[in-house]
Amino acid sequence: MRKNDVYWWSDAPLTAPEPKPVPAAADVVIVGAGYTGLAAAIRLARAGRSVQVFDRQRPGEGASTRNGGITSGNLRPGHAELAKRFGEDRAVAILAEAKAAREDLYRFIAEERIDCDFALTGRFSGASAPGDYDRLARDAGAISLVEIVEAMEGPLGMTECSLHAGNCGIEQSCGVRANWRRINDVVVEALRSVTLAQMLAAPAPPPEPETRRIALHLANA
């Protein structure tokens, strides 16, 4: 191995495509054969475009196959820091974009039937000091129940077809798929409306029973 090679290339070596002449014209030319470039090329080619992808190295030889394979949608700045820097609305949008990117990866692996030993194993955030604990506790107000479920189990789906097309042989003629997707959306929104902080909060005391006065009239003997 060369000095800058990563050790997992020993078991999964990169392959070099066979050199081919470059066509004189193409609808789209993409520079960079990493995850982003190749994903764009696949989408364009399946839409009927002629696509050429160029890279000075073998496909994926850059950052795409040198990273540790972590697919977390979490960002290094937490919700509180993002909100302080960019405002609440943009912070929520940034975190939602990270979540959508992670879900798109799940979809891509499933639909392309890629055997890559992908597994959802959760994420652990530890607190080594009281200040770290306080920071995590404040962030709990920005974590919804649907995020917890999806971090542990993957995208929430009442049925397979609620998430991705192509997983059922009768989905084209199925009369209940649309209704299941509506139910799925309602469940997701209900879980999204409840935060981890709300679940951890002490339950509110029950309301005092309402006192009612009953008029009593005694009949004359």
Low-confidence stretches: none
* Spatial extent as radius of gyration: 27 Å
Q: Looking across the biggest beta sheet, what order are the strands in?
A: 1-2
Order of helices and strands: EHEHHHHHH
Strand content: under 5%
Instruction: Label the overall shape.
Output: elongated
By helix and strand content, what is the structural category? mainly alpha
Output mean pLDDT: 81
Tell me the distance between the termini: 111 Å
Strand segment count:
2
What does this 3D model show about the protein?
- By secondary structure, this protein is mainly α.
- It has a domain at 1-69.
- 38% of the residues lie in helices and 4% in strands.
- The protein is built from 7 helices and 2 strands.
- It has helices spanning 35-46, 79-86, 88-112, 130-139, 145-153, 177-192, 196-200; strands at residues 28-31, 51-54.
- It has a two-stranded parallel ribbon with strand order 1-2.
- The radius of gyration is 27 Å and the shape is elongated.
